[in-house]
Amino acid sequence: MIRRLLWVSVGLAIVIAYPMLFSTPFQQRLGALVLLYAIAASAWNIVGGYAGQVSVGHVVFFGCGAYAAMGAYVHFGLSPLVGIPGGIAIAVALVIAIIKGSMVASVFMHLNNEQRWIYGALVLTVFFFIVLMCLPLFTTLDTIGTPIQAISTEHAGGH
């Protein structure tokens, strides 16, 4: 236990001291990439190793987070550190979801004969949320309700 705490302390000290020791843009970018890939590897270890599931869905969230942070920086000039309160809120929401999911699983996992219906309901729920998330995209693709530009009299043949 003490040995593990020592390694965690050394790693944390390196992470904190890294920006002060290496100040060139290349070195700081390299350090950020190492940390990002360490986070991705830890996520894969949890999903693939401990949970035993073969899923690459977490990579989508990793990419969306990186894309959103860069978009906020490029378009609004916001530092990626602005997202830290949102990350804390997401972590709290995940803890609540884990607790609620565990409570639901403890009730429904003994229903072996009804598994087909439960999975069907879950698939329909996922489909509903996918459509719900795509609705803003669909509304930007249509032209219903957009004003038609008036045809000028020059093109219409008028005087």
Describe the structure.
With 159 residues, the chain is mainly alpha-helical. Helices cover 77% and strands 0% of the residues. The chain has six helices and no strands. The chain has helices at 2-21, 25-50, 57-76, 84-108, 115-141, 153-156. The longest helix is centred in the last third of the chain and has 27 residues, at 115-141. It is extended. The termini are far apart.
In short:
It is built from 6 helices and no strands.
Q: What are the defining features of this structure?
A:
159 residues, mainly alpha
Beta-strand percent range: under 5%
How far is the first residue's CA from the last residue's CA? 90 Å
User: Are there runs of 5+ residues with pLDDT below 50, and where?
Assistant: 150-154
Mean pLDDT: 75
Question: Share of helix among residues?
Answer: over 70%
Summarize the biggest pleated sheet: none
Estimated radius of gyration: 25 Å
Order of helices and strands: HHHHHH
Overall, the morphology is extended
Alpha-beta content class: mainly alpha
Count of helix runs: 6
Number of strands: 0
